[in-house]
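Here is one chain, start to finish.
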Amino acid sequence: MAVKSGNTGVIKMHTADGSEAAVGQTRNFSIESTSDTLETTVLGNADRTYISGLKGHTVSVEAYWDEADPVQILLDPGTTIFFEVHPTGTGTGEEYYHGQGVVASKSISAAADGMVEASFSLTVSGAITTADNS
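Its structure:
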């Protein structure tokens, strides 16, 4: 298994005009996948039993806030957007994840001793699929 640095990662969104662009000033991002667990325990069982239910996915992005970045401006709650997450960069053959989601939250924060930062969360609609950069 190859170990790779995350410093070449890129997250892209498809902007209003249909073009794709990287989220500017990105500091980190994550994809979280979950599955509902449905209990199937019946009377007489000594232990609980479960089956897998519906799956869900969330994409989160943290960045330095840039009011001039067209992608950050686009990421308002309620907006449906297509995304691409490139954990190890956009080089030929690098695997990436893509799908469609709804922006669930947007937060802008600042501290007296720090940078103005933004965080965005997308709730994925449907599955996340993988592909390789060509």
